[in-house]
Structures are given as C-alpha cells and as structure tokens.
Amino acid sequence: MSPRNKYGWPAFFAVLILARAQNVTPPVATHQVEPEWGADLSKAYLEDRTPVEMVVDAEGVPYSLKGALPDNVVVALSKWRFQPGKKDGRPAAFGLVIKVPVRRTINPDVERSYGQYGRNPSFLFSKELNDAIKSGAELDAAGAAEVLKSLAAAPENINARATLLAYWANAKLAKTEELRKARLEQIVWLVQNAPESVLWASPLLHINAQGGPLEDPSGYAQVRGLWLQQASSNREDAEMIGHAADFLKIADPEKSLELRMSINKNANPASWLGENLGMAALGVTGLDFERGLPASAAENMPETPFAQKARSSLMSTNDASLLMAGLATVAIAGKSLAKAGHLPGGYAEFCEALLNKAKQVQPATTTSCDPSGALPEGSSGNQPLRIRVGGNVQAANLIKKVQPAYPAEARSRLIQGTVEFTATIGKDGKIGTLTLASGPLALYESARDAVRQWVYKPTLLNGSPVEVVTRIDVAYTLSR
C-alpha cells in the first residue's frame, strides 16, 4: 500500500465489511489509483469525503460501485486491486464501504453552495410541487378556502397543503392568531403524517419561536415536541431525523446538532455542521418563509455557552469544507439580516476574522463579508434556477438518444444490469454534469459515453427554461 501523504488517497481509506459470516478474511487493497484531478483541481479546491459502496469480486477486482461519484473518481476506483477476501477458506465476493475524497474547484458558486442559505430548496422539489407553491403565492382568500375544503376529501394531498402554506406566507394579511392557527394545523398534520416529505426542506414549514415573521412560541413548542417524539420513535430513520433537526436549527441549535450527530456519525458533516455553528454564532432568531433567509437576530451576537462554542469551533478548525460552510452561512446571513435591519453588533469583526482564517487554510477563498452586497442569485424569489424531475417524466422529453454498445468484456463475462446516473440537464437540454449513482463497472464507460450525447427538450417553469436534476438509468440485458 502506498504511503500516506497530505492529500493522498490512502489517508482516507476506511473499510467496513458488510458481510457478517464467520471464518471471514476481508479483501486487502494491494493497488490503489488516485484520480486524475487536472490543473484546476490540483491547486485551489475543496475536498469532501464521500462514502462509496464497492463490491469486490472473488478475484479481487472491483465489480460495482454505489455512491455519488464524478467520472475521474469512478475511473480511478475501477483500477483498484485487492488480495481476494475469503469465506471459510475460499475466495469470495465482498461488499465494502469506503470513503473517498472528491474535489471541487473553489469559485464563488461552490463557496456559496456550502451555505444552506445560498441556495433555493426548490431544486429538490418536483415540477408539480414547485407549481403548487407558485399557485399558493398567487392565490386569493376564496381560492384558499376551496383548497382547504378539498383536503377534507384528500388529506394526503401534500401539494395542496404546500399551496396553502405558500398562500399564508405571501398573503398581505395582519399577523393574526387566526393565521397562526391555520398554519399550525397544516404543519402539525405534516409532522404527524408526512415527516419524510421533501416539503420539509421548504421554509414554508418553519415556525419562528423568538422573532421574525408570524412569531409563534407556543406553536413552535407544540411542533418541537412532536418532532422529538418522532425522532425518539424512529432512531434509524436518517431522513426523518434530518427534517427534525432542520426544524429545530434556529430556536434549538444545540438539540439540532445532537440529532444530526446521531445519524451522521460516519458522514461528512461540513454542510450541516457549518450551518448550525454559523447561525448559532450570529444569534439568528427568525427566518422568512419565502426564502428561508435570516430575518431577525439579537441586537448583539449572543454570549451563551453554545454561541461561544460555535464561534470557537469555527475559528479553530482547519477543515476547509467546514470553514467554507460556516463562512458561507455567516456571510449570506449577514447580508440578509442587514437588509432586514437586524444585523447584530459584532458581526463585522467575527465575519472578517472567520474570512481571514479561511484564507489561511485555502488562500483562493473569494467570499466577502460586506453585508451590503447582493444576495446570491437564486436565493430569493419564487423562480428556482434548477428543479428536480423524476427519471420517467424527464425521459418523455428525450429528443436525441444514442444507444450504448454492449461492452465485449461484459458480454463475455455475462455481466448485465443497470447503470444509474444523476444528471444535470442544462437550459438548452444538453447533459451538463453526470455522476454515477450505482452500477457494474464493466458497463459504466459505455453508458457514460452514450448518455453524454443525449439531448432533451428544454424544461420550462413559469415559461422560462430551467436546469433539471434527474436520474437516468441505462439497462443492459443479455439476450437468451
């Protein structure tokens, strides 16, 4: 095995044997290949460690991968070789989990992507859910009453509930108890009946406990209790606990962090940890419902034990990804709070100190602490830059499909199966980024080369073209 070095692949090699059989000797890596990063990714970059499931065959050759992997990492992993593992003294296939570094070039868009408040969560939603939210923003009182009435017949209609929440967030109404109660009823239903829904990524479901729009301490306490019950009853449901932690992140940052840690012990925590620490360090007390941006904060940065710990943790870390996540959160929150007239005292000093720290770790950092600057594109308004579309739905828009050739080696080895990609399709309908989600390695290059040539009809949202994130499956079946 090659020696470890500052950025070397072996330094991050960690294996978890998924098999539970007795008399097992796991495979041992004898040849590891690092990805070819190119000039841009060899100088100024951020690096995340991504968990990957790898199946190694009985000859010690990687057979398949499952993860979120760019092409250069897939190619490198395909060249790894192992001393074959054994079960009961015989060579056998094994499932392994490894963590591999994935690099991203440092630029303003990538830096902002580390801050939860630099992106519009609409890209997570289906077109139907985005349309439902948009219709709510344009609804009147009579239309809202009709939607509410429809829920009696179809209570599971999440899109209808999203429409109502968007209406209440955008309607020019007084901050009445009636409005708070109506919102609360919908949010309570969702946490009790749909805690796994992707709609929880939307700020429409947030309840401000200490400040900001429609402040509702009692409603927050009620929903907080329901979320903690859900978390206690579903300790292995990472997605649901993540939603609970997200709901608690402003009023209960310490409890939010505790929940996150319970489900992310082996995951890269940079994004959510940086967000948690950044928001707690500033003392944000409320978010707006349209964009999820900070809308209120204490007059001065708080001196609570957790706030002090948050600032200290960010200032003392040398983890570039964590620093970027914290800095992006602090910088974007500062701009939003300044526009709302609630920038806390001490912000400028803390943000500049954090920026200087980030530049010590990664000199290419471009983030600005100027609170008067513009918020990132896509972090405001109802028009997302990118939406998520199901694979079957997007397939109907395919106008140019290059059929992949069946690799001769795979055919001779009787390998068949499906290669799954996550693809970003540009506004022009052409394939942008393409990452492997899962599939046999013997089929990967053939599928990749074909899909890169596919073209789709542009996807329109509110009459304007948007980027699309979708899944693409390429199936290989041997004829009998």
Write the layout of secondary structure elements.
Elements: E1 16-17, E2 24-25, E3 28-31, H1 40-43, E4 45-56, E5 62-69, H2 71-78, E6 81-83, E7 85-87, E8 90-92, E9 94-105, H3 108-113, H4 127-137, H5 141-150, H6 158-170, H7 177-193, H8 217-233, H9 238-248, H10 253-263, H11 270-282, E10 284-287, E11 294-297, H12 305-316, H13 320-340, H14 347-361, E12 386-388, H15 391-395, E13 398-400, H16 408-412, E14 417-425, E15 431-440, H17 441-451, E16 455-456, E17 459-461, E18 464-476
Parallel strand pairs: 12-18
Antiparallel strand pairs: 1-9, 2-7, 3-6, 4-5, 4-9, 5-15, 7-8, 10-11, 13-16, 14-15, 14-18, 17-18
Protein model, in words:
The radius of gyration is 24 Å and the shape is globular. The protein folds into three domains: 97 residues, TolA/TonB C-terminal domain (2-Layer Sandwich), CATH 3.30.2420; 253 residues; 88 residues, TolA/TonB C-terminal domain (2-Layer Sandwich), CATH 3.30.2420. Helix 8 runs antiparallel to helix 9 and helix 11 packs across helix 12. The strands form five sheets. Strands 1, 4, 5, 9, 12, 14, 15, 17 and 18 form a nine-stranded mixed sheet that branches. With 480 residues, it is an alpha+beta fold.
Radius of gyration: 24 Å
Number of helices: 17
**Which spans have pLDDT < 50 for at least 5 consecutive residues?**
1-21, 379-383
SS strand fraction: 15-25%
The overall pLDDT average reads: 86
Oligomeric state: single chain
Summarize the main sheet: 9 strands, mixed
In total, the number of domains comes to 3
Please bin the fraction of helical residues: 25-40%
List how many beta strands DSSP finds: 18
Approximate shape: globular
**SSE class:** alpha+beta
Rounded to the nearest angstrom, the distance between the terminal CA atoms is 42 Å
